[in-house]
Amino acid sequence: MARAATTSDAFNAIAEPQRRDILVLLRGGERPVTELARDLGMTQPQASKHLRVLREVGLVKVREAGKQRLYGLDARGLRPIHEWVGGFERFWNESFDRLDDYVRELKQAGQEGPDHGDDEQ
Amino acid sequence: MARAATTSDAFNAIAEPQRRDILVLLRGGERPVTELARDLGMTQPQASKHLRVLREVGLVKVREAGKQRLYGLDARGLRPIHEWVGGFERFWNESFDRLDDYVRELKQAGQEGPDHGDDEQ
DNA sequence: TTGACGCATGCCGATATAGGCATACGATGA
DNA sequence: TCATCGTATGCCTATATCGGCATGCGTCAA
């Protein structure tokens, strides 16, 4: 096997910096391919290809407008990511040493009696 | 070129589902490699390799414990991701059609001058 | 020392990405 | 119809991933 397809996931799609840049730019509203390419300093084919990936994972939508194709943001696909990552919030808020303590406490609590509940996906 | 290195970014590191699983499991506390491998149904070398990537991007830390090496979570690297993705929150909260309207309003406002007042949420 | 265990690596193969460049295609206007 | 603009694709190369398998290495117990 190789790496998971960039189009398999929103996770994989946004792993590419340029694609992230595109999304950010798109927050400002719909844009035609060429404009995106220009603003981000990439070639038109490059932009088109990245947009294809983003389209396939559903992070952008296209709208025909005469000769142009306007790409717009569809951020809904980012929500799951935000939630997944958010599941770690308490862990980065704790300082490191204290985090270890915290974990050890959890373990003990788990062995001794009713738990504090906290787990999985 | 090829794809960005998996170790170049936390973004790239968590693009791999198995690595995400490891992180989730690690929320429960430190674990030795073999246990992780067993619980996640992967081979030991596989686990080691994924842990290496996670270690290189700083999402996990290791601690020697006799024959074992205990891997623990260091979620601090996830924070930037959470923030980046969080920058799109308002966009996935809007329904799609309304989002377009919103964007159009922004554009007009930008061209005409002082706005119509009234946006988001 | 020897042996078992826990883990990290090395090597190989299959796959697919991202970039560069050329080009095909649809829409618009002359 | 023809030229042109705006995009999407195709092809080629270099690179690196992930998985499988074997093996190297350090630690601990006989």
UniProtKB/TrEMBL annotation, chains A, B:
Q: Enumerate the Pfam families for this protein.
A: HTH_5
Alphabetical list of SUPFAM superfamilies matching this protein: Winged helix' DNA-binding domain (SSF46785)
Q: Name one GO molecular function term.
A: DNA-binding transcription factor activity
Where does the HTH arsR-type domain lie?
A: 1-93
What Gene3D superfamilies does the record point to?
Winged helix-like DNA-binding domain superfamily/Winged helix DNA-binding domain
UniProt name for this protein: Transcriptional regulator
* Organism, as annotated: Streptomyces griseorubiginosus
